[in-house]
């Protein structure tokens, strides 16, 4: 016996195509709708057995809020999430919101139908390979990319970091040179290298970028290099 379904996706063409395919297989499709933003209200009103809810960004905060509301007001409705290959965070977020399963957008119609029937029966409907991949990534997480401040900081030498901090403090070339015990010409060269590496055209832009990305906070926690030069002597 076919299930009573709703298909909701931001891409109306996808929703209608999937709805048509499911109708041909004997299921009763109550609605094929877009956008997904209005899914909760529509599902609560129509009360299908299973709702297929499409998303393009399963890890985005708040994306599964409609699922939370549906399960709160219509707990008997099974929600199947349709989406791209998910990250472990995406799968976890879907199930934490109350979803009964997760089906990839590129799944064959037979696979979608199997997930529908499992969800209607109260079973978790998620492909074993998706769970395996999620557990593998959770147990062996890949290194996360550094944030922008850390990335910029890694481009600078310790001496250039000190120059940038002094620039942000408002020091001119003479004060930078005196404070670091280097010649003004050397200080000017350091400043130019810092601007070039940060991709900015002025000291003011460099200071603003460093403050906005948190680079200054990170740099402030680093020890400043010991200056082995007298305050008036040239750098060697």
Biggest sheet record: 6 strands, parallel
Strand order of the largest sheet: 2-1-3-4-5-6
Shape: rod-shaped
- β-sheet strand percentage: 5-15%
Number of strands: 6
Attribute tags:
236 residues, 12 helices, Rossmann fold, 6-stranded parallel β-sheet
Concise overview:
By secondary structure, the chain is of the alpha/beta class.
Description:
By secondary structure, this protein is an alpha/beta fold. The chain folds into two domains: 4-139, Response regulator (Rossmann fold, 3-Layer(aba) Sandwich); 146-220, Winged helix-like DNA-binding domain superfamily/Winged helix DNA-binding domain (Arc Repressor Mutant, subunit A). The protein has twelve helices and six strands. A six-stranded parallel β-sheet has the order 2-1-3-4-5-6, with helices on both faces. The longest helix has 15 residues, at 184-198. The radius of gyration is 28 Å and the shape is rod-shaped. 32% of the residues are buried. Pfam families: GerE, Response_reg. This is Helix-turn-helix transcriptional regulator. Residues 149-214 form the HTH luxR-type domain.
């Amino acid at each position: 016996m076919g299930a009573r379904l709703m298909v909701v996706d931001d891409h109306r063409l996808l929703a209608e195509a999937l709805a048509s395919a499911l109708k041909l297989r004997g299921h009763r499709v109550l609605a094929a709708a877009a956008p997904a933003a209005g899914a909760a209200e529509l599902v609560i009103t129509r009360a299908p057995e299973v709702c297929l809810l499409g998303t393009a960004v399963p890890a985005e905060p708040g994306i599964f809020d409609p699922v939370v509301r549906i399960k709160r007001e219509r707990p008997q409705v099974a929600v199947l999430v349709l989406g791209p290959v998910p990250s472990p965070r995406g799968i976890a977020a879907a199930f934490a919101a109350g979803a009964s399963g997760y089906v990839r957008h590129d799944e064959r119609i037979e696979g979608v139908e199997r997930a529908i029937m499992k969800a209607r029966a109260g079973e978790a409907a998620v492909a074993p390979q998706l769970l395996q991949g999620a557990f593998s990534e959770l147990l062996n997480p890949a290194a996360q990319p550094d944030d922008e401040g850390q990335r910029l900081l890694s481009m600078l030498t310790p001496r250039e970091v000190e120059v940038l901090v002094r620039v942000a403090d408002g020091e001119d070339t003479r004060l930078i040179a005196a404070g670091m015990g280097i010649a003004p010409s050397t200080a000017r060269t350091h400043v130019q290298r810092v601007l070039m590496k940060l991709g900015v055209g002025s000291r003011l832009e460099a200071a603003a970028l460093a403050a906005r990305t948190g680079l200054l906070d990170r740099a402030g926690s680093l020890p400043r290099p010991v200056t082995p030069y007298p305050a008036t002597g040239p750098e060697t």
